[in-house]
Structure formats: structure tokens, C-alpha cells
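Blinded run. Sample ID left blank on purpose so nobody reads anything into the name before looking at the predicted structure. Input follows.
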Amino acid sequence: MHPVLPTRDYLCNHVVSHIPVFEWRMAAYRRLGLKVGVDSSILMSCEVHCVRGVTIGRNSVVNQHCYLDGRGGLTIGDNVNISPHTHLITGSHDVNGPDFPGLEEPILIQDHAWLCTRALILNGVTIGQGAVVAAGAVVTQSVPPFAIVGGVPARKIGERNPDLAYTLKYDISWQ
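Blinded prediction complete.
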């Protein structure tokens, strides 16, 4: 009898996400098929579901204890800041379907967006360029570029300056 090999998701979530040396952790994520751009960072203790469905652009940061669901496709742009405990969930169910079928729709986070702590982004949502999702917000509909949204469900509460020119780059070795 052949031994059962761990899946990519299992390795990502129970081994790789706990590697304390940043460079080793990022190399292991890439080796398992996670598409991560140059100078992007995934801090420790993140969970990734369906590794091959997730793409992260350049200079983006995924902070600790985030959940990235790639089942329906998850694309994170360049210079995106995802704060701790944020969840991006591409799967759901049709509550009115007689057999409760699963639904998967992609999430797109465009360049320079900021998802604050404990934000929840649901399937089928696009977060526009430079948009900000306030802490604890539940986003069920797409957010226009440079809008600031908050609440449950999230609604527009402000507007962000569109003159964004920053580059995120975390110089870390032990996180």
C-alpha cells in the first residue's frame, strides 16, 4: 500500500505558513504553485485554500492570519495591503437551490487597494484601484476605484485621494 501524500493546501497551511524565515516561506509557497509577484510578502499563519487559484501581484502584503480562497479564482494586484485576519472567500452556495449547489465566483483586488483588519470580501466582488475597505466591513458588492467603504454590509463612506504613487515593500526576515 502506498502512503497518502499531503495535498498542496495541507502543506501550505500546516507547514509552509509556519516557516519563520520569510525567504524560505516565500520560496516554499512558489514551489507549491502559488503565483506571487516580486517583493510581495505573505506573513506567517495565513491559510490558502486552492493554492493554484491564487495570484498575487508585485509589492503586495498579506498580513498574518488571513484566509485566501482560490477555488473561484483570486487575483490580488500590485501594491495591495491586506491587513491581519482578512478573509477573501470565492465560494458560496445557492440557498434557494433544491440541492444546495456550490457557487464559485472570482474576487479581484486591484492595485493600491487596502483591506483593513478583519474585512470580509465575498465571491464575485471586485475591489477597485486604490479603494479602501474599513476594518470589519463585509463586502458583498463590487467597490468602485478610490471609494472608502465600511459597515455590514459595506457601503460607501468616503473617497480616497487618487494620486497614489507608493510602493509597498516589507523588509522582513522573521515574520
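Unblinding after everyone has recorded impressions. The chain has a mean pLDDT of 93.
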